[in-house]
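Researcher: Batch entry, complex prediction.
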Amino acid sequence: MITPTGTPRDATVLEARGVTKRFAGITALDNVDFTLHPGESLALMGENGAGKSTLIKVLTGVYQPDAGELHLGGTTTTFARPLDAQRSGISTIYQEVNLIPLLSVAQNIFLGREPRDRWGLIDFKQLNENARTLLDTYDIHVNVRRPLHRLALGMQQMVALARAVSIDARVVIMDEPTSSLEAREVETLFRVIGLLRAQGIAIVYVSHRMDEIYRVCDSVTVLRDGKSVHSGLLADLPRVELVSIMLGRSVEKTKRESLTAFGSARTSSQAPTLIATDLTRKHQISGISLEIRPGEVVGLGGLLGSGRSETLKALAGVMKVDNGHVRVGGRLVKNGSVSAAIRAGIVMLPEDRKAEGIIPNLSIRDNIVLAALPRLSVGGFTSRARQDAIVDVFMKRLRIKATSSSQLVSELSGGNQQKVMIARWLAMNPRVLLLDEPTRGIDVGAKAEVQALINELADEGLAIVMVSSEVEEVVEGSARVIVLRDGSVETELIGDEVTEHHLLSALVGEPITVTKELP
Amino acid sequence: MSVIVPEAGLPTTKRFDRETLALGAQKYGATVVLALLVVIGTIAFPTFASVSNVSNIATQSSFLVIVAAGMTFVILTGGIDLSVGSVFALGGVLAAYGSTFGSVEALLLPLVACGVIGMIQGFLVAYVGMAPFIVTLAGLLGVRGIVFASTNAGSNTPIVSDLSFKAIGQETLFGVRWPVIIAIVVIIVGTVLLTRSRGGQSILAVGGSESAAALMGVAVARIKFSVYVVSGLCAGLAGALNAAYSSSGVPTVGAGLELSAIAAVVIGGTLLTGGRGNLISTVVGVLLLSVIQNLINQVGSLSSSVQSVVSGLFLAIVVIVQTILSRTQRL
Ligand SMILES: Nc1ncnc2c1ncn2[C@@H]1O[C@H](COP(=O)(O)OP(=O)(O)OP(=O)(O)O)[C@@H](O)[C@H]1O
Ligand SMILES: [Mg+2]
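Model: Structure tokens for the complex:
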């Protein structure tokens, strides 16, 4: 645990007083107070749609508040645009959009601050070198000349981090920085946060992962339905209490409704629904064979670059394989064809929902029923009533926070967008469900619901494959874990072997001793 | 101090190479087709590679190059400028009027007026938030209206009277016509701005992802505003040069020019969605259009409707190849 630096508690670096922000139909922030002290590491917590990202955008000049004021280092201020906040030493990693996909890593890091030669022209050699030096400092290894869109999502996030910390800042704000990171990258992030704190830089940290909060933060501000409902030190606040404040329930009720719904993982002895044999694609995966039975939730474990996501993509027909084949119910599925895979009953929840799935300018309803349309329609027509029935169920169960099912997805909070995507794939009612990071960015309450839904689907006889970078989730949710390393199957954990300890040592390929430093 | 760190994890060399190849093909595809056509033309038609024909192609292309250069800036931000054909005509008419006062006026009058038109359109797109398509479509109609209104419904064709202004369109330097030299200068200056200035980086950023660029502190509105001004200036300059070249400001000139300019930009390899592209490839796109046109003329016997079909087919092929290549690349 990082100890708070000894700055006087009365000085503030950034403050919001009575901030209110309304969007058409809803009040996203309602008279919110927010205080950040120099060197403090503050967790900003709340359910999906509580207003965390909106508060951050008000603090950094993206949105103008409808009421209330901001104080910077004790004096009242306004930020007309993000650049103003940046110039005042507030550096931000936003939740949704981060960087420019077509520009290189180095260009992204230094956009607007490029080194120039004596003619006033950009010195690209210097630019790349600066980027390399910066990334080296934080042990991030990537070719700085590569266009950003060719990097894995986690690496893109690390580049965003490098950009944020390279801006000479007093405050660094991170809105769910870890939601797309691997365990190893999370460690890098924490190391960077440690370095920032040692320099007396204040941190605002948003995450739905409790372990992280308790590890990197020393105080917390909780938002609920746009109101600030609690501020205080984390050390005095047990987890259950924090969760109950977030959800607005009594501690007893929170305890009763145990927070993870997984646990009753089951094995199955029926004939496999899906059989993959010897899937190979040069430099990505080699000789991967697996069988998934009906009613089974199989975890796919592995580190970054182990080929987890690639394996899922190969199964779903998104990625063509050079060798090997996939069978569903004994029938061969055409290689590299998504539509053939869907016809065979394989659907995949992609990892990068933003790039690969969500359609921001359609309504929640349209996004959910999109993939299920063929199933819902009779002779090319669909009935609105049938659509609404399905949409209503998912909106309730996943607790999608919106004004109505016809609200545009682009207006939802990050976590609620995730829920819409999950609903879309679950609504397809497939035979094989491939889930890449199913609970990413989802709050504790809804997480349990998603996990319960996954279990129910398994009970109905679906074969489910799940990838999650949260070891805990894989272990709790799966009856069987297939561990990948360097693109091939390393080992398989079954029954009693499915423990965090076993999985962690299988992941790194050597026996390790697990040290848990968390409460 | 700074060490070049190899990529961590599995080096995906093969895949990388194929991607790079496809990227290269998309980048240089138009150049390759152009080179092929030039070879074919040289072999098939003895007059094709003659000095007079080449100089003809160069001069004819130079006006479109200047217009398309401005268009490239606009398209790189993810926008579009449909008004350039009309602005081109306005530039020509104003240059001819201006030439009655002198050569400086002949150049300044169209530049100022077309710059102002660019500013109005840029303001509406960048600060009011209107769709570029709508704004510049209104520009296309409105500016043509102004041109007709100032030329008695197009029946007056103002003549360029100033001799030194005429010279800018017709004289040569080391055997190269001035419009060609000016076009080259425009391309060089534009390329330096685009690739080596912070403003250029911002243009690419805005086209790549407007929302991300805004959050990264790019002054998105100012960037969008300025590309329409640049496009207006370029179209006005080209129109003025064309007037000097043809000794008159023809009110009907430049109809459909916006489509040629957009086609040249896209054929060159600049993404219509913005964020990637450059001016050199736009020049290649323009030359490709001109050479196709010239080859069709060389055949001679084709009727104008067949000509249109042939050049349309060519464009379709180039665009299809481009699309396939860019798709390979994203895989
Ligand atoms: N541009 C917008 N238009 C309309 N409503 C919006 C807009 N942005 C946010 N909202 C609404 O404001 C509320 C708060 O959203 P916000 O993104 O701040 O939530 P959050 O706490 O960050 O949630 P998450 O954990 O899911 O990221 C939500 O109900 C959301 O639908
Ligand atoms: Mg959020």
